[in-house]
Amino acid sequence: MLKKTVLCVSVLALAGIGVALAQQPPAGIKRTPLQTIAFPEGYNTVTGLAELAPGTKAGRHTHPGVETGYVLEGELVLSIDGQPDKTLKAGESYQIPAGAVHDAAVHGDKPMKVLGVYIVDKTKPLASPAPAK
After folding, report:
1. Exposed site from 71, 76, 91, 106, fewest CB < 10 Å?
2. What b/e readout covers 50-82, taking b as 16+ CB neighbours within 10 angstroms?
3. DSSP annotation of 35
4. Domain span at 38
5. Whole-prediction pTM value?
6. How far is 31 from 114, CA to CA, in rounded Å?
7. Which pLDDT score, from 0 to 100, does residue 133 have?
8. What are the φ/ψ torsions at residue 104 (nearest 5 degrees)?
9. What pLDDT was estimated at residue 95?
10. What is the pLDDT of residues 23-77, one digit of tens each?
11. How many structural domains is the chain composed of?
């Protein structure tokens, strides 16, 4: 019974994440979900890759939990409302507070790739669009 419950929760979590990640991203963005863990209690820990082509922005959005990430390739400008923009290069990491409106844009003429980890409320979508500034 426990295995069945864990399998069902995992399938539902992956389906929800797949929908969130598969929603028509702007041109030039590729999102690849890698894994989801139903932990800690009431949350999902989601790991995924985001690849952005030069000149691309992720679009302003929020997450129902914290995001942390690591820049694998290229450079990005991370904009978090209420904070100064940060330019991050390959090998650098970042953190975004729960619910913070943020955006990421490729900096320079090379593509950018990040590994993101999200610890989010499992009853809510992984990401929600935020109004334009």
Report:
1. 91
2. bbbeeebbbbbbbbbbbbebebeebbbbbbbee
3. E
4. 2-129
5. 0.80
6. 10
7. 83
8. -135, 135
9. 98
10. 566 789 999 999 999 999 999 999 999 999 999 999 999 999 999 999 999 999 9
11. 1
